[in-house]
């Protein structure tokens, strides 16, 4: 009963005006929200293109509808995941699993980067028009269900990373909602940014590793103040642009 009550209390926080005021008037909270938005964009920019590939077999108007329904599904999943997660993340073993998963994501990225493999990811996600979902629900709704499932799969990494940044319900909710909207709306901007500053992609996974360490230390009662954590994030992004400048300088000098 205490488990159910804890989850209900967490959802009740979504409707507390005091929390709205506290979050929206706190500069540090906006800094953390901005961090979540940037992380979402960096981690998920290519995901928006994958979703575009998944609906490309539909007529143009139906493509927009399918992506819109997928967006509603992504928001619904975020609401459920944040409500449940804020309560569950207090359990030490959930923190260990979450930290382990984020650490694995970061390690896997660097292993894959070292291998420098280049597969056709977008084509791999194209909807099989003779697939089970299409046969069960028809072309349009089968595609919508496929987009919903893909949205959920994409959201897992971002939601877990978000819990490493903050446990405040409204910070997670506002950051997640704006992040998903940005991922869909300006995916091309983030892809262009990553093309121009390729070190940003590596930075995103360095941040995930930092978040994993922060989450794991929380198991032992060590909680980093949001302000200090935000300073670490700012320094990490600052170091990224310094490294990018040095790399460009090295390339330009070697080309002379």
Could you explain how this protein is built, in words?
The protein is built from 11 helices and no strands. By secondary structure, it is mostly helical. The chain has one domain. The longest helix is centred in the middle third of the chain and has 34 residues, at 132-165. The model is unreliable at 119-125 (pLDDT under 50).
What's a quick, concise take on this entry?
The chain is built from eleven helices and no strands.
Give the % helix: over 70%
Shape: globular
Mean pLDDT: 76
Question: Beta-strand percentage?
Answer: under 5%
Low-confidence runs of at least 5 consecutive residues? 119-125
- H/E element sequence: HHHHHHHHHHH
Q: Report the biggest beta sheet as strand number plus sense, adding barrel if it closes.
A: none
Counted beta strands: 0
Number of helices: 11
Query: From the alpha-carbon coordinates, what is the Rg to the nearest angstrom?
Result: 20 Å
Termini separation comes to: 71 Å
Counted up, domains total 1
Which structural class is indicated by helix and strand composition?
mainly alpha
């Amino acid at each position: 009963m205490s488990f159910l009550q804890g989850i209900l209390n967490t959802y009740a926080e979504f409707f507390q005006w005091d929390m709205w005021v506290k979050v929206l008037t706190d500069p540090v909270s906006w800094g953390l929200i901005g961090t979540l938005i940037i992380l979402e964009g960096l981690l998920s920019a290519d995901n928006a293109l994958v979703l575009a590939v998944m609906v490309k077999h539909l007529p143009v108007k139906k493509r927009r509808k399918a992506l819109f329904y997928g967006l509603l599904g992504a928001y619904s999943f975020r609401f459920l995941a944040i409500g449940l997660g804020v309560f569950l993340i207090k359990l030490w073993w959930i923190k260990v699993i979450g930290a382990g998963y984020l650490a694995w994501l970061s390690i896997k990225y660097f292993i894959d980067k070292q291998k420098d493999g280049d597969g056709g990811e977008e084509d791999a996600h194209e909807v099989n028009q003779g697939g089970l979902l299409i046969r069960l629900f028809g072309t349009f709704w089968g595609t919508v269900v496929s987009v919903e499932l893909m949205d959920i799969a994409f959201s897992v990494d971002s939601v877990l990373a978000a819990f490493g940044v903050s446990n405040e319900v409204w910070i997670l909710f506002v950051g997640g909602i704006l992040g998903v909207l940005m991922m869909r709306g300006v995916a091309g901007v983030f892809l262009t940014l990553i093309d121009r500053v390729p070190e940003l992609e590596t930075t995103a996974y360095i941040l995930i590793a930092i978040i994993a360490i922060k989450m794991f230390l929380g198991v032992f009662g060590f909680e980093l103040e949001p302000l200090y954590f935000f300073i670490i994030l700012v320094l990490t992004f600052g170091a990224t642009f310094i490294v990018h400048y040095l790399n460009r300088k090295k390339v330009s000098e070697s080309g002379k």
